[in-house]
Amino acid sequence: PEVLEFFRRNALSIKEICMEEFHTVFVTSCHQVYVCGHGQGGRLGIGKEKPLLIPTQLPTRGESCIHAAVGLNHTLLLLSNGGVLSCGSNLHHQLGISPYAEHSSTPRYVNINATRPFGVISAICASRYHSVFCTSKAIFACGLNAGQLGCRDNRMDFFTVPQQLAVVGRETDLITHVTTSLGSVSYATSSGDIFTFHQFQCKKIMRCPDIVKLESQGGHLASVVNGIEGGEDLKITWLTKRGTVFIWQEKRGISKCSIGTGRILSICDICLRNDTLLMVTKYGEAFSGLMKTRETGVILEKVTKNSEIPCWCSVNIKQFSNMHRALSITSDPKGKNIAVIQAHPSNPVGFRRANTRTSSIASHMKSFLEQASEYDNLHDITFSINNTKVAAHKFIMASRGCPWSLLQKSSVQVPSGIPLVIFEELLKFVYTGDSALLHLGKCREPFLEIADPVKKLAEAATFAGVEELQKRLQSLRFENGVIYCFKELKGLPSSPPMCFDRQLLPALCDVDVVCDDSVILKAHKCILAARMEYFNNMFMSGWTEAEMGMKIHLQCSSRIVNWILDFLYTDRLPESLGCEDLDNIIKLLIASDQYLIDDLKDECAIYLSELLSLKNCVMILQLANTYNEQSLKVSVMEYIAYNLNAVIENRYLEFLDDALLSELNDYCRESLAVKFKDRAICTYFDAPSDEEIVEAALEMSFTDSPMEFPVIADEENDRQKLGSSGKKKTPKKIFAASPPGPVFSPSESDRIRMSVSVESAFSPSSSSFESSFNNYEFPLLSESFSAKAELAKSPPKQSVEPRRVYPPKLSQKQRKKLASEFEEKLDLNQDEVKPKRGWAKIELPPETPLELSRSPITEPAKKIQEAGPNLVEIIAKEQQKRTNLRKMTTKPFHLTQMEDSAMLDLEEFYNVGCSYEERITITRVVPLNVAEPTWMPLSRRLPVL
């Protein structure tokens, strides 16, 4: 799936999508309409029949659109005032306009005079040959009457204007849902009854309460006008509040959809197209399922909570990738194109422009005014008041309305009637836009010594030419140490936000800023020093840059420097910056961090939080962590936690640092609704505890060699009878680490035969027993029972080993003689030579009694390991060869062309033709493990005619 970038870039939220074979209509949350597709017949309503590849807004005559519906060649729009607009082809009278016209390339109002007695139109539907308009009490339709409109009147094959349909139901019922398809019109009432108009009849389907959505597909047409007939079987599906989906089919009756998944899906939206059911769950997942209904003849007339549906419709679903916030789903009539409306990925994120920082330009200018003195290098004008000099700056005074005639001199004498404290309040208003005398209530202590401080401040404002302050003081009066507002005024007028114009008075510019691209920008030292600590230290400390006419170099492009200067003068960034490239905003944030502009850095963080997406969230998170922007970092972590499924599915977190990934992991665990710390592994009620398992492990004792437990002679004598082949069977032997019970001594002949069998053959059970100790620290009981399964398997055919030659059959006396001689040899060599065993030797080091090691493999084991592959391995290799051959033969031609182009590019990149010191060869790697192609005769592939 791909995101429509047009709506994302323009910040448009879509609430409804209507798709047809040739065009699509979008309705936004602000009730605007956008269309795109093929415009033949005027179906787009833009006044032309040209195609539109990019969604274009459709004018709706100044009204808001609340709902849309589309047919194959026409479009319907339901407006907020109850009117309906239609455009497109009117060949079958489906537009409902009067007088009749063959087509309309612009939206025109539908003649809905017949619907006014029944209330306002609440829903509209459209199909290929007709249109449907629904109120809470009645249903109206216009277009071709081919059985889907219910009534049969041979004199009227078309309804030019909407006509009322004969709705069936109780008088007290309201129509809650309506839908239409090629050959039907279906609706549901408030009591849960579902009806459909099909083949000139109104049929009741069933009663099902709590219907959320109703969909229909197919239907047969019965019309001889222009040869229109045919169709397909009618299907009606609906969704209940409990998330259950039912489907009614014309020939099979009602079926309850059984979703083929291992978990319960809480479905909130459905869309039926042919045999495909599209679904959306409340968790934002989107699925597509193929329906298969079992044949049955049972038809239900009513569905209740306790009723059982005898017919089930299995739906084999497949989840759409990269869809985790789906709200609704729709598709075209053939189901080839699917559209899904998703919730915005940053909906729950609270870090937005509504929570922006407060402006700091007033506090910066106040600090700068308090810092100014007649001895610094930045002031360019002084005011003398009673032998006291007050330093100021011409550009700031001129920006606040002071006349240029007052600022031409470097020293100005203030009239004697204006006290020093009053003139300081005047300068405070000029620099910050606020003053203590502009607040209602009791005056502060310095102003109580003056008879009327408000009047004195007004005289000072008149002297300095600050008209804004004069207007604000006209609404105030001073009485008995308290400032009042005149009764006719409800309150003080609000002051505009504090800002300066960089382009104002270019003659007062006293510094040049040189960018990386050699662009020179003019600026004022007073503003730079007041707003940036970097320039304040530079100009106040007597550096060479503080001299007149010096140039300042900033390691940024002219665009970045322009944005920085605009922010310093106005304390805000231009609105168009949000639509700029993300890289420029990142560069601006880096520059603000480099030059210690914290306010600009926070503003860039707000812009970046608004541009968050699944593709750039990890990159922005690393950026916020690198430049210590905590507010942005928390915002991105919250964004990732909300969209964790999509981020993990697209493998975006693979590029994140380990430390930052660990921090993100902790944040997600704390922020998610399901607390991970509250989760616990639940065991069975009778499962042993960890302490019991440890105690059982410590009680286990292992010896250096496995003990031999011979079987009981009486039982084995019965088992060793001659089988069908006439050969005797070798008795089974049991080996274990510790004796589980009492040991029974076997007979003499059994013990001899068991000893001989150890030397003559290698027991397959030993390998299973050995692997149980090799793979796990604690032996599993299930491994000891695998010996029988191993004995039951036939050994693989060994072509390398020579064929075993068995000794000739001996008489009873000869066997007894050989047995006695062998027993004597065993008694003599028992302490010197250990018998050979075909299993591993168990060794237990004293420091780790549960850690088992393997003894060297004996010679018989080596021979078996060196044997050829078994049948399973051979079959697996052959299947792999066939798979590789199939991939080679079915490889698309365009991939081969891409490989050839890549090989040519590599040859050109490495300069293969002119490289004389080394030899470079570029070839296509072909898998070696490929089956030989099998050529089939032509007679087997083609039928003989």
Automatic annotation (TrEMBL):
GO function terms (MF aspect): kinase activity
The RCC repeat ranges on this chain: 31-81, 82-137
Positions of the BTB domain: 379-439, 509-577
UniProt keyword annotation of Lyase present: no
Highest rank taxon of the organism: Eukaryota
Annotated spans, Disordered: 714-748, 792-814
PROSITE patterns found in the cross-reference section: BTB, RCC1_3
Keywords in alphabetical order: Kinase, Repeat, Transferase
Xref: CDD domains: BACK_IBtk
Name of the protein described by the UniProt record: Inhibitor of Bruton tyrosine kinase
Record gene name: ibtk_1
